[in-house]
Amino acid sequence: MTLLALLHSPAASGGDTTTRRIAEHLSASGHPVRLLPHADAVAEAAKDADVLAMVGTHALLSGSTFLETGRPYVLVLGGTDLNEYALEPVFHQVMTQAVERAAGLVAFNDDFVRRSRELWPQVADKVRYIPQGVRTTPSDYSLRRALGVGADAKLLLLPAGLRPVKDPLFAIDAVKQLHEDDDRVRLVIAGVSYDEDYEAMVRRRCGGSPAVRYVGALAREDLHAAMREATAVLNTSTSECSPNSLLEAMDVGCPVVVRDIPGNTCLVEHDATGLVFADRDGLREQVRRLLDDDVLARRLRRHGQEHVRRVHGMPAERAAYAAVVRDLLDDLPPVVDVPARDRIVRANGVDLCVQTFGDPADPAILLVAGSGASMLAWDAGFCELLAGESRYVIRYDHRDTGRSVSYPPGEPPYELRDLAADAVGVLDALGVERAHVVGISLGGMIAQVAALAEPARIASLTLVATSPGEGPDLPPPSLRVLTALADVEPPDWTDRDSVVEHLVAAARPLSGPSRDFDEHAHRRVAARVFVRAGGRLESAGNHAYLDHGAPWRPRLGRITAPTLVVHGADDPIHPVAHAHALAAAIPGAAVRILGRAGHELSEVDWPDLVPAIVRHTTGSEGRLPRATTPL
């Protein structure tokens, strides 16, 4: 099984670096990528039987090539797509065809997500936001040594190809004036030359001035070293996508000074992670501030580096692209042989559909979904993040969901304890002796019952948005939310659009009230839920008729598995008192509260929740009796 990617940008350019980084991510995730240098090579290679799909940057440059192959593909929308090509009617027509045929679309920032959806509303649900990842590997290169300048020189580095959109002439004129006031200030332009005539213009503007040097393209490692030595890294572009060079500069601890355009300000917050200017006078003002205020410079270095390492980490980017491709491959026709696809196993005497991520030799994590929810309740990106932390991740469809066994609506011939036995049965089917179990909502109750019935099989419990069961001391669900759910119209279960609208409307009231509800993401998942159910989706409602059996809360004190209780501060189904009651009943359980979260597992919580689960499943989380701390 192979993926193809087109290298259409000059070596060492931003587009080339991004394509190679994505290909590296996918190959490391078990999806080998062949990098091809031109469109003809892609068209020929796509004929190979082992090629399943393609991935590329730019809706025009890659999309126009991929359209001709008939293979499914994912497109990463670039700055040139939206800032330049989309303005040309002929190009826009080709791009429209490309995005309509694409299995998935990726944008690097919120502004590009919004603009993509405005340009092509018919594919709005396909567009995913994946922040660029950054990894820096500085060499022992010294820019100061290469220029013959000392430690007192104030080097302003502009890492940019020589193109009008990068506006190096603006930077040259501004820094020349700064140099007149302080001859320590120098501008260094490092990047690919795209056009001989424009390069000649840049060199003429530089003249023989000691204030400016163009050093050509630097090797990536040398550029990182140059950033580490620079006083600041500049971006003077008139339009951008999400310039990776700024992230690299922040990662090595170099302050950034950027033009006020959406592609820059989506990465840089003025006076917090960098400095932003609107015009030439503003650039000079911000540079002078940086030179005159060591405290400001140190704060920008620290905050910029912290921001990049939290939001733009390579593991998160790897997991996100692996998830996009995983979804694409899972949606291929069943006759296509796809490695690691979901499969039917015999568990507890019934047919259940399971899917795994990661190495079976690693510690296993079994994910148990909530009421009426299939394995898709656990986003592939979440699973990939855990697998990237050396975990063998298992998700599966409950009875009456997804591709597992189903029964007539309203007639479930099983109880809650049977679903708990199913969870253990999945482990049996996969040859897993013992697993860490993560359950959400009803899945958390299933996990509790399984831990009581089969304590030797449960290495640890992570109980998310769940309850120890009903009790007079526990608050009921929010009346507002129950009313909202009651008002959701039942769908035509045979009609895709009707079902999607129903599932999205039912999910909205469960979200934290102070959070943005990602309707497009919910619609994308709901559409896949409909297809996977194969016309049996109405049976998922059988979970509402489950007999929960005898209360298990009085027996929770017998649980010996290390337990982490995770709960949304604004959960409207199981108010937060349920979390505290659960932790109080299980010896040594720890509680972690997700601020502003509702009855959900939102992507915004992954950066906190995934490390907590990893710590918990390595035994170093600590078992803090009745502890309550935010993640």
Structural features, described:
- Helix 1 (14-28) crosses helix 15, helix 8 packs across helix 13 and helix 17 packs across helix 18.
- The protein is α/β, with parallel strands linked by helices and 631 residues long.
- It is 39% helix and 17% strand.
- It is built from 23 helices and 21 strands.
- It has a 9-stranded mixed beta sheet, with helices on both faces.
- Helix 3 links the parallel strand 3 and strand 4 (73-76).
Short description:
With 631 residues, the protein is α/β, with parallel strands linked by helices.
Write the layout of secondary structure elements.
Layout: E1 2-6, H1 14-28, E2 33-36, H2 39-45, E3 51-57, H3 63-66, E4 73-76, H4 79-83, H5 89-101, E5 104-107, H6 110-119, E6 127-129, H7 143-147, E7 154-159, H8 168-181, E8 185-190, H9 196-206, E9 212-216, H10 220-229, E10 232-235, H11 244-251, E11 256-259, H12 262-265, E12 275-277, H13 280-292, H14 294-311, H15 314-330, E13 343-347, E14 350-357, E15 364-368, H16 380-387, E16 392-396, H17 416-430, E17 435-440, H18 442-453, E18 458-464, H19 479-486, H20 496-507, H21 519-533, E19 563-568, H22 577-585, E20 590-594, H23 606-616, E21 627-630
Helix pairs in contact: 1-15, 8-13, 11-14, 15-16, 17-18, 20-21
Q: Name the helicity range.
A: 25-40%
Provide the low-confidence segments as ranges.
620-630
Strand order in the largest sheet? 13-14-16-15-17-18-19-20-21
Beta strand %: 15-25%
Radius of gyration over all CA atoms, rounded:
27 Å
Please provide the count of β strands.
Answer: 21
**What is the overall pLDDT average?**
95
Quaternary state of the chains: single chain
Structural class: alpha/beta
Main pleated sheet: 9 strands, mixed
